[in-house]
Each structure stands twice: as C-alpha cells, then as structure tokens.
Amino acid sequence: MTEPRSRKAAMLDRDGTIIPDHAYVADPDLVSLLPGAAKAIQALAAAGYPSIVITNQSGIARGLVSVSQYHAVRRRLDELLAAEGAVLADSFACPHHPDFTGQCACRKPLTALYERAAAMHDLDLAQCLFIGDKARDIVPANSFGAKAALVRSTNTTQDDVAQAELDSRPVTSSLAQAVSLLLTNAE
Predict the structure, then answer these.
(1) 159 is catalytic
(2) With a threshold of 0.70, does the pTM exceed it?
(3) Is the dihedral of CA 160, 163, 169, 171 positive or negative?
C-alpha cells in the first residue's frame, strides 16, 4: 500500500499571471515580470507552497513559437525571478491546440499536466493553490477540491469572471493579491 501524497504547491498560470500576456511570446527580450509577481512567489515559498507553472502554449501548435523559443522564454523568466530572489519549482506546458494537433488531455482546463506535476513532486492536489487569469486556470481546482483565485489581466473576459464567481472563487487584481488572500485563508 502506498502512502498518500502530502506535499502542496501553488499551480500558477504564466501569461497574464506572472508575466504580461504578449500573445505567443517567442522572444525572451519581451519577458518582464508583472508588478509584485516575484514577491508573491517568495511569499508562497515561505508558506510552504513551491510554485509550479502550468501553461497552455498553443503558439507551439500554431507554428508561432518553436520549442526552443519556449525554453528560451522559460529561462528568461527564471532569470528575472532569480534576480528578485524567487524561484519556480517546475514548469509544465501543453504545446497543443485542438484545431491544429487534435484533442489532448493536457490542455487546461483538463488536468493531465496537474496530475503529472503531482506525480513528479509527490503533491496532494487538494492541498494545492490554483491561480491564473482565465477560468481554465482555476476550474481544475474544482476537480481536486482545492482553493483557487482568478487574477484579472488584460485578457480576462467577463465569462472568466462569471465562472470564478459561479465557483465561489475570489477575483483579484494581481498575483500578489491572490496569494495574500489564499494564504490568509489557507489554514
């Protein structure tokens, strides 16, 4: 009999949550941190929630972003966070889009990437925090009975807000505000 998983983490969307959403960012020079993002990731780590990015990257399927460009953007994000004393524990990306590559199990709001992260990091997904700027980033929390918050970005739609409200999830103005709210209510 295996022991139940017990670790927790913060499952964060990338574009519109940690960095501005530039729609299919392929150039690492375009990467910048949203205000307070590094401090929010530090606060999560201090509270025992290492940050893991779960991101849909359909630009790869569309031929707008190569896999090597995605990795260069990821490295740049890691560099910017490190310069501010923050670190991501891991990052998982769905490179698919149903119109270009067919259906997959890893495109959010489906849960395969979260389940892969849980297996790799021994996570109890019910203890994790889910934060992103789209409903698809936080709806997976419903499957696991976890806490979540929506961060308003320039790409958050009224439908995203309505879904968050329907699911009784807080809607915040930043990653920092979402983290503060979720950590206050985590105990």
Answers:
(1) no
(2) yes
(3) positive
